[in-house]
Write a structure and sequence with these properties.
By secondary structure, this protein is mainly alpha-helical. The chain folds into 2 domains: about 60 residues, Arc Repressor Mutant, subunit A, CATH 1.10.10.10; about 140 residues, Up-down Bundle (Four Helix Bundle (Hemerythrin (Met), subunit A)). It is about 75% helix and about 5% strand. The protein has a 3-stranded antiparallel β-sheet with strand order 1-3-2. The longest helix is centred in the middle third of the chain and has 25 residues. The chain is globular and about 55 Å long.
Length: about 220
């Protein structure tokens, strides 16, 4: 349900992003400013600003004389995004491994792991995807790198879209991702840089394979 926001354009963008991520708005589908304005009872200027936010997050493309439309999902885009995100995740995880000092520093990751397990048990794909990305946000303070954070935040919605598509078709894979997260947490605790890279490479490759298989099945 859309609710009146404090930051209107950002809230509109989030509302539309969720619809794109869940597949309610399909690749190539046009997003009509007037229709969004009327359905959400907001100004056209706010909708335009929201679409610019979504363009920056790679969920829409704005074309001359054609307006905004949902970006395509194809093998090249999926592979390119998964490759880049894997490297960004590795950077984050290495920072956490280097900088955590006491067990309480890692409590946020333990809590997220518990929520992921609960989402898995309920077979709740949306909650599982959302909490998967809570991991990286919990890691941001350790990296203290605003450029890395901004890059990941802008790419995260596209990655969520891929992840959601894959898990909606293969819910059983949530168990494999849970196991990978457990391995990652142990590697971070041990400050094992080689294992961190190995686990996150495996995660990226598995995610990419699942998304590509989901695209091929459509």
């Amino acid at each position: 349900m859309f609710k009146a926001p404090d930051s209107l354009a950002e809230q509109i963008a989030q509302h539309l992003a969720e619809r794109i991520i869940r597949g309610e708005l399909k690749p190539g589908e046009r997003i009509q400013e007037q229709k969004v304005t009327q359905s959400l009872n907001v100004s056209r200027g706010s909708v335009r600003e929201a679409l610019l936010i979504l363009q920056r997050r790679h969920l829409v493309v704005i074309l001359p004389r054609r307006g905004a439309q949902v970006t395509a999902l194809n093998a090249h885009h999926v592979t390119s995004l998964c490759t880049l995100m894997s490297e960004l995740y590795i950077l984050l995880a290495l920072e956490v491994a280097e900088r955590w000092q006491q067990q309480s520093d890692l409590q946020a990751f333990v809590s997220i792991q518990q929520r992921l397990q609960a989402s898995h048990d309920r077979q709740d794909v949306q909650a599982f995807v959302e909490d998967s990305f809570s991991v990286m946000r919990a890691a941001f303070p350790f990296a203290d790198n605003p450029y890395l954070q901004e890059t990941i935040e802008n790419l995260q919605p596209s990655m969520s879209r891929n992840y959601y598509l894959a898990l909606e078709q293969r819910k059983a894979e949530m168990g494999d991702f849970l196991e990978l997260f457990a391995q990652l947490l142990h590697a971070v605790i041990d400050r094992d840089q080689v294992r961190i890279r190995s686990v996150l490479k495996a995660y990226g490759q598995r995610n990419c394979q699942l998304v590509l298989a989901a695209l091929a099945a459509d």
